[in-house]
Amino acid sequence: MNRLRVDPDKLQQCVISMGKNIDLGLIEKVPLDEQTPPEGKAWWIPVLPVTHPKRGKVRIVFDSSAKYCGISLNLKLLQGPDINNRLKNVLLNFRDGEIGFMADIESMFYAFSVDKKDRDFLRFYWYEDNDPLKDVIQNRATVHVFGNAPSPAIAIFGLRYATTANEDDASCTEAKNFIQNSFYMDDGVAASNSSEQAIAILKDARKILGKYNRAVIPPKASSTKELDACGWDDPLPDKYKPSWEAWKSSLSSASAVSVLRSYTPAGFQSTDRQLHVFCDASEEAIGYAIYLRSQSSVGEICVSLVMGNSKVAPRGATSIPRMELCAAVEAARAAEETI
């Protein structure tokens, strides 16, 4: 709190943000008769202002990993399973159509309430009446907050539950698929064959989620012992500096490389699609590339890169044949995920 007082701009942004949360009922005062909870039935979380490095926007974060006597709230919470869609699969879907579109879930974690009996574990101190000139008092969150270990799993589960709550409803199938498979946390991207279809999907997605009051809106690894002995903050050995500088200089040419978002050009009607997977290995690395071959009804053929990847050669692979086998395994896994 004292640090905020010496930065008026950041303090004002925090006050505005906290005010919105209070007005929405996401934060509540702890009643006077509940100021002293039963032993072991409450936890107080430090709140920190975090500034976005590019936007300059300040977000209030609940530091549930902060420890007191060696214990933190996150150490006692079950994180839950990692059920987030894989980013690679989301981006692949984003390319499968002529029209690309995006959406965002506003304040996703705050969409999900915390049971009243558990809210005392989300206590924190903030200015009374959200006025920095007044004393700090006890407040508590009524929703899952940014900083709690289980918040991501809970939010993703809740988002998908909204699409399955009425399984008998056969409408909005494309929107349900969009919500289930095209979101990476609170950001969704997908593609369709027409702008009308894209608009319809977004409208239906807002309709589905509206029922629940949600608005849609350098590597350290190396195979050399010398580099292995380097710490993160150690200077790079002189013998490697030329290679490093040459690699940095080559980055300027990366802007000349472009890949069309859609797998096929505008108006291309695919009647046959084939995935072609290539992999190879050398003494230094293994890699693969996957291409999509599309053919239209009039015999036109379009080939586009779907994805590619490379890795430093595994240490356990002591021969080229073994490394080629490792490359084949990686390529097969990638192809299976892509299909």
Task: Give the arrangement of secondary structure elements.
Layout lengths: L1 H4 L2 H16 L3 E3 L17 E5 L6 E5 L10 H4 L10 H8 L4 E6 L18 E5 L8 E6 L9 H14 L8 H9 L1 E2 L2 E6 L2 H16 L14 H4 L12 H10 L19 E12 L3 E12 L4 E12 L7 H19 L1
Antiparallel strand pairs: 1-6, 2-3, 4-8, 5-6, 7-8, 9-10, 10-11
Helix pairs in contact: 5-6, 6-7
Structure notes:
This protein is α+β, with helices and mostly antiparallel strands and 339 residues long. 31% of the residues lie in helices and 22% in strands. It contains 10 helices and 11 strands. The chain has helices spanning 2-5, 8-23, 73-76, 87-94, 151-164, 173-181, 195-210, 225-228, 241-250, 320-338, and strands spanning 27-29, 47-51, 58-62, 99-104, 123-127, 136-141, 183-184, 187-192, 270-281, 285-296, 301-312. It has a 3-stranded antiparallel beta sheet, with helices on one face. Strands 4-8-7 form a 3-stranded antiparallel beta sheet. Strands 9-10-11 form a 3-stranded antiparallel beta sheet. The radius of gyration is 26 Å and the shape is globular. It holds the Pfam family Peptidase_A17. One of its GO terms (biological process) is DNA biosynthetic process.
Q: What is the total domain count? A: 3
Q: Taking strands numbered 1, 2, ... along the chain, how are they ordered across the largest sheet?
A: 1-6-5
Question: Which quaternary structure do these chains form?
Answer: single chain
User: pLDDT below 50 for ≥5 consecutive residues: which ranges?
Assistant: 218-225
Helicity, as a percent range: 25-40%
SSE series:
HHEEEHHEEEHHEEHHHEEEH
The major β-sheet equals: 3 strands, antiparallel
- Strand fraction equals 15-25%
Number of helices, counting only DSSP H or I runs of 4 residues or more: 10
Please report the distance between the alpha carbons of the first and last residues. 52 Å
Q: How many beta-strand runs?
A: 11
